[in-house]
Amino acid sequence: MFGIKFVKFEPGFYIFKYKGGKITKEGEGLSFYYFAPTTSLVAVPIGSIDVPFIFNESTQDFQEISVQGQITYRISDPKKISQLLNYTLNNATYGYLYDDPNKLSPRLINLVQVVTKNQVKRLTLKEALGSSENLVNQILKDVSQDKMVLALGVEILGASILAVKPNPETAKALEAETRETILRESDQAIFLRRNSAVEKERAIKENELNTEIAIENKNREIKEKQMESEKLVQLRTQELEESDLKFRIEQEEKNKALIALQTVNQKQTSDAKAYAIASVMKAYQGVDPNILQTLASVGMDPNKMIALAFQGIAGKADKIGQLNITPDLLNNLLKPNEETH
């Protein structure tokens, strides 16, 4: 009514109320009455704004790639930007009178594209495809320090690269190359695995051979020890046999000496007996045999005397006419012998 209006702004907008070319009220989320014909309202959004982007750039090796990402910013100094860009509102619709607020995001995107182009053109295709993190860091650094951004009072809150992609044909070529690389790596892995299996099998065989060799060596050592033991036993047996033979030889030598001594003694005894007999025979030389026989019969056993009698009879048998020997006589002669037995 009569040009007086009431306006209420939500938080997230910094409001400047101009009257007569001067700021009469400013702040965030204000609400007030104002006289429309003489008052201008400026509303600067101070919340964070996400701006997506996608660029087609060429790498150092002349390969085309697309860089897709997003930048987030906010207006940290509303007064600065309101002096460079027109954020005046239409008092009737409360929309912006000019297109300046829509120019901020494209300006920032242009800066991001310049930074991205400068980075990508230094990289090869493969390097660019893996440069997302480096691109993000470079965008944040260069855009935040840009003079225009600082003059506008804009703060860069963050940046992200969602994808770095080659064109479809290049992507297929890279896929084929990568696939071949993977297949080669797979073949290499299979080769290494088989080679490892062969090496392990060879190691097992070597272990088995070494074990067999060790067993053979041990058996040889055992046989050598047994042979040495047998040799020692044989040597000991031989020593014992030699010692026994030596002892027996010594005994035989002693026996030989003893026999020789006994022979000498027997010879001396025989000589002594012969001398005694010779002396006796010399004493009886010239004596009548009958007298000697009579002397010999003294104290003789009766049986022997009878035997001598029969011997005498037999010696003179040619002179005896008849001799009768009865059984009774023989029994009487034999009884003493039976009794003695």
TrEMBL record:
A Gene Ontology term for the protein's cellular component: membrane
UniProt source species: Leptospira ognonensis
InterPro entries for the chain: Band_7, Band_7/SPFH_dom_sf
Protein name: SPFH domain-containing protein
Membrane topology: Single-pass membrane protein
Superkingdom: Bacteria
Major localization listed first in the record, in broad terms: membrane
Locations listed in the record: Membrane
Taxonomic lineage of the native organism: Bacteria, Pseudomonadati, Spirochaetota, Spirochaetia, Leptospirales
Record-annotated Band domain positions: 10-187
